[in-house]
Amino acid sequence: MEKLAQIGMQFKSIELLDTVLKAPQKALPKNLVFQYDISLQHQLRREENLLIVICNINIKAESIKDQLGSIRASCIFNINNLSDFYNETDKQYDLPDQLVITANSITISTMRGLMFASFRGTFLHGTVLPLIDPKAIKAEANKKEK
Fold first, then answer.
1. CA distance 32 to 142
2. pTM attached to this predicted model
3. Residue 9 and residue 100: Cα distance in Å, rounded?
4. Is 145 helix (H, G, I), strand (E, B) or coil?
5. Residue 58 has what pLDDT?
6. For residue 110, what are the domain limits?
7. What is the CATH number of the domain that holds 137?
8. Nearest-CA neighbor of 146 among 75, 107, 97, 93?
């Protein structure tokens, strides 16, 4: 974690990009088990020293074939000297694993709060994103700059 502090990573902002609710035909059973399809995408902006982690969560349920809703948001991080991680030969970035894991973890935790706030009072009120190991999610890395 000390190396991460040396890099100089700061949480800059959160952007709620999209929420979708698809009301089911019938009331949902009380003990319904929700399923979450989570994807992460990384975008880098070298000139602004930004790492943008976009998270999309699709919500389904075990006994319902249609998707019930989704939420998409981005967490934006300022990375000091982002250009230090740019490989001119390969024309792509090589970010330290711990930095990526930390950004993913913060983004997933932030999504949990956004889900609660966005779905409160709706039929998806009970959707609580479980604890997730950020190492278990493969992010779509866009290592080329935008």
1. 36
2. 0.84
3. 11
4. strand
5. 96
6. 2-145
7. 3.10.420.10
8. 93
